[in-house]
Amino acid sequence: MWGSLPHTGLVYTALVWKAKLKTPVDRWIFALVSGGVVALALLGAQAPPARTDPRTFLDTYCIACHNQKLRTAGLALDSADVSKPAASPDLWERVIEKLRAGSMPPPGSPRPDAATYRGVATSLENEIDRAWAASPNPGRSNAVHRLNRAEYNNAIRDLFALDLDVRPLLPGDETADGSFDNFADVLSISTAHLERYMSVARQVTRLATGLPPASPSLETFEIPLHVLQDDRQSEDLPLGSRGGIAVRHYFQSTASTLSEFACNGSIRIISRAWGGHSGSTFASTENC
Questions:
Q1: Which one has a higher pLDDT value, 199 or 22?
Q2: Comparing C-alpha atoms, which of 96, 85, 157, 166 is closest to residue 128?
């Protein structure tokens, strides 16, 4: 009998240890351990459960309600070809969902055991997956996905290590449902888009390569009127400061290295401070 069981190596080892046992306590421990070994051997020797035929399963548990006459929940499984579930994947995905949840048949009706539920659901899933793998259909995809303003701005930062904000220089992006602006289906490429993106690309490449500007440029940095100016406004401002704004700006230069940095021309900075209903304007010009 011992030789017919699996794991005979474990049983043989247990028999060898039995010869070394001396006290009754040792023999009781041996009996418990060897009983567990035999139980594992018997479980391993059991044959796997028989595969349930999906057609038989449907005829037994489903057809009474889901037939051509009643069409409960809009399903008629008596005429559906269960041997080819890939031909109607939407239908059989609904069936698989109910089988996985164990919600059908309804309470009060004859119900299969859990192993039968899993077997039929797995069989249907495998057939659908096998058919899809043989002929995959990923659906329609756009040939071109234009970068929106935020994505284009991030691409500049990642490629050139330039902390620029070019979003105000680009046209607004369309949204699919009023919220998301990164859907390829709605990101059109018009002539205006192409011209603005090319213009921004020229400015960015001149900054990245150190070419001098083609013409004087004007940059305006505004503080929103509703922002309170009674506390420190940025990590770039000194501790204890109140209000104001810190600006990082890239100036173009013809220098090849940082030590040779030089600019040809002048930089004019105009600041306007508002207090109450009147304001003061300050201007300074730096020549270099």
A1: 199
A2: 85
